[in-house]
């Protein structure tokens, strides 16, 4: 009995070279990227892939060699993951994120954004009113243990709003501590806690609103309302907007988890997660800008009107970037 | 029959236990072929995470030392503060982007996953996007980093009391053990991002068992049709495994079982290896011929009556 007597063995012998060629190409792509392939190899790749896929279908019908079928399955899987994997280069991805994906994702969650903003500013307003009516209300929400208390004089408080001596280490320090401790944590938490049906996100937003309201109330009660808003909003427009967006993304995740709608829950979650992921990446960018503004802008710009201008321009900038995009519908 | 029923759920061509069978997911390619992805076990994923955590820790220590010795005194004024800032910056970048950057790469895997031979794919084999990678790794903050930070450094400046420690441990436990308790081994991040972690398919084509047999011996082994009808595809594949990787003892045991079952009179000095190879080859030929006529024999219990 000759060894070619088995049809499945002949089948394999006739096609093995093509499989090996595909395997080699995929191996090289994985090790050093698709750019190392020569033009004729690039042309050959999809053909070899289809050959392998059709071999797999045939092999399942004619061969009982398990090793062969397993091999073809893994080969086709690898080919499939490459052929239908991410197509775009990093830079294409990067530019499409800023041109389209991010604003689109933000626009898709207007309702959640309004809800987040309402929670945060609502609580800020309530606490501000409380502090204005009775300065004792400040203490439960005092987040920073420093000289900014109702006992401090107007001069002391005013001094905290402006910087006289600027040195680069100090600015860098503010930049870093703001970016890498408080803000990012709050934003990431707002996002991630959405997973628990959004309730912790709401609590966190409310809590931050309370702190905000307490300090604004304190300064307003000392007649420094105009100044504190300038001090706060030069970077706060960007920073608070970022936190609100992160929370909105969290709400979308939480809402989808609780009420997936007509899709299967895992599918609905995957869609919501991608939109939320886009917003989340954008939030990191915003927080970076906000920390720059806070670390450098606020220390260098000590004039109230200029601070208001920066705040106004950034607010207009963000709003038009996110929401005024005529003809951007896909 | 219980075994036959389990066989139906199991992909053809795999001799696996029940756990393994549950870990395979079928995806139909646009070409219409069904391919299978093997989800990673919880243990493999834990291993990958530990390796990644180790790499991050070592990088952090090395980076910290470079910063400590590399920033010259007085360069920025108070250098210890600058060093502290640089270190925080470095830690932040490592923590926030280590997983994301590696998983956005060609291999869709962090070094730890690469070592454990895993990769990330989008669920149902769809296209994996950068957003998905971002979302699944932001969740890591909530799942692991944050509760750990609370445990190590306390919350808001105070160390945790007993009750809070318990709560944080429960929090940690819910997320850490989540992959064990769902069918697709999803952790929180996978659920949000719509991703799977699978075993990276590594094709290995061994020689066809039939190509190695010494063909001169074939004349010595002529089996009757009846003898070749004894076994089915399942047994054929078990035999393939034995021939590929069985030891001499295993082969001897299998050979004597087969001889007994088919009533084969062993010739004097008959060796087990050639006997098994010849039997494998002829059994495969018989079964493959049946298969071409659409008449498959699943295993030795399959008499063709039930279907």
What does this structure look like?
The complex is a heterodimer of chains A (330) and B (307). By secondary structure, chain A is mainly α. Helices cover 78% and strands 0% of the residues of chain A. Chain A folds into two domains: 3-85; 94-323, no CATH class. Chain A has helices spanning 7-32, 39-62, 66-83, 90-107, 110-133, 154-161, 168-193, 199-221, 225-258, 265-300, 304-323. Chain B is mainly alpha-helical and 307 residues long. Chain B folds into three domains: 2-38, no CATH class; 42-199, no CATH class; 216-292, no CATH class. Chain B contains 13 helices and four strands. In chain B, β1 and β2 (34-38) form a beta hairpin. The longest helix of chain B has 29 residues, at 42-70. Residues 1-15 of chain B have low confidence and may be disordered. The interface between A and B is large, with 81 and 82 residues.
Give the SSE map.
The complex is a heterodimer of chains A (330) and B (307).
Chain A: H1 7-32, H2 39-62, H3 66-83, H4 90-107, H5 110-133, H6 154-161, H7 168-193, H8 199-221, H9 225-258, H10 265-300, H11 304-323
Chain B: H1 2-9, H2 18-22, E1 24-28, E2 34-38, H3 42-70, H4 79-104, H5 111-115, E3 118-122, H6 130-153, H7 162-176, H8 188-193, E4 195-199, H9 209-212, H10 225-228, H11 233-245, H12 248-262, H13 272-292
Antiparallel strand pairs in B: 1-2, 3-4
């Amino acid at each position: 009995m000759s060894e070619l007597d088995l049809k499945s063995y002949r089948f394999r012998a006739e096609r093995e070279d093509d499989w090996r060629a595909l395997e080699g190409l995929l191996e090289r792509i994985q090790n050093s990227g698709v750019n190392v392939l020569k033009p004729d190899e690039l042309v050959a790749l999809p053909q070899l892939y289809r050959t392998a896929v059709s071999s797999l279908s045939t092999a399942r019908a004619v061969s009982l060699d398990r090793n062969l079928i397993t091999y073809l399955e893994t080969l086709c899987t690898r080919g499939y993951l490459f052929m239908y994997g991410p197509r775009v280069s990093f830079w294409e991805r990067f530019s499409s994120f800023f041109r389209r994906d991010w604003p689109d994702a933000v626009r898709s969650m207007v309702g959640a954004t309004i809800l987040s903003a309402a929670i945060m500013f609502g609580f800020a307003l309530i606490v501000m009113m409380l502090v204005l009516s009775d300065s004792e209300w400040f203490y439960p929400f005092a987040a920073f243990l420093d000289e900014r208390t109702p006992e401090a004089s107007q001069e002391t408080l005013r001094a905290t709003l402006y910087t006289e001596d600027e040195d680069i280490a100090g600015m860098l320090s503010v930049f870093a501590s703001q970016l890498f401790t408080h803000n990012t944590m709050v934003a990431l938490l707002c996002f991630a806690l959405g997973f628990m049906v959004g309730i912790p996100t709401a609590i966190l937003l409310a809590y931050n609103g309370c702190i905000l309201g307490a300090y604004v109330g304190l300064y307003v009660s000392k007649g420094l309302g105009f100044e504190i808003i300038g001090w706060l909003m030069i970077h706060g427009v960007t920073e608070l907007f970022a936190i609100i967006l992160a929370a909105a993304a969290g709400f979308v995740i939480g809402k989808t988890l609780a009420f997936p709608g007509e899709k299967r829950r895992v599918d609905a979650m995957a869609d919501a997660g991608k939109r939320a992921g886009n917003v989340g990446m954008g939030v990191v960018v915003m927080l970076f800008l906000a920390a720059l503004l806070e670390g450098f802008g606020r220390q260098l710009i000590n004039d109230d009107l200029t601070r208001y201008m920066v705040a106004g321009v950034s607010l207009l900038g963000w709003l038009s970037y996110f929401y005024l995009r005529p003809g951007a519908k896909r | 029959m219980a075994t036959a029923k389990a066989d139906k759920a199991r992909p053809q061509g795999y001799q696996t236990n029940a756990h393994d069978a549950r870990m395979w997911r079928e995806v139909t390619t646009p070409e219409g072929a069904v391919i299978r992805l093997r989800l990673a076990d919880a243990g493999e994923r834990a291993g990958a995470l530990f390796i990644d955590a180790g790499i991050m820790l070592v990088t952090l220590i090395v980076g910290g030392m470079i910063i400590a010795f590399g920033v010259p005194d007085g360069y920025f004024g108070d250098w210890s503060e600058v060093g502290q800032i640089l270190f925080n910056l470095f830690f932040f970048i490592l923590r926030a982007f280590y997983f994301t950057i590696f998983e956005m790469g060609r291999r869709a895997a962090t070094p730890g996953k690469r070592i454990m031979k895993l990769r990330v794919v989008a669920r149902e084999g769809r296209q994996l996007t950068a957003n998905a990678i971002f979302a699944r790794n932001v969740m890591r903050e909530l799942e692991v980093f944050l509760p750990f930070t609370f445990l190590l450094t306390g919350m808001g400046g105070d160390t945790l009391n007993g009750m809070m420690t318990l709560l944080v441990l429960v929090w940690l436990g819910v997320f850490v053990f989540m992959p064990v308790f769902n069918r697709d081994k999803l952790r929180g991040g996978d659920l949000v991002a719509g991703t799977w972690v699978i075993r990276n398919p590594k094709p290995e084509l061994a020689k066809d068992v039939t190509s190695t047999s010494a063909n001169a011996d074939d004349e010595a082994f002529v089996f009757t049709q009846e003898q070749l009808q004894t076994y089915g595809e399942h047994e054929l594949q078990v035999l393939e495994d034995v021939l590929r990787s069985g030891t001499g003892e295993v082969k001897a045991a299998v050979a004597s079982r087969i001889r007994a079952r088919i009533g084969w009179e062993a010739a004097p000095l008959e060796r087990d290896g050639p006997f098994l190879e010849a039997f494998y080859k002829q059994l495969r030929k018989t079964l493959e011929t049946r298969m071409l006529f659409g008449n498959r024999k699943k295993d030795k219990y399959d008499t063709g009556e039930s279907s």
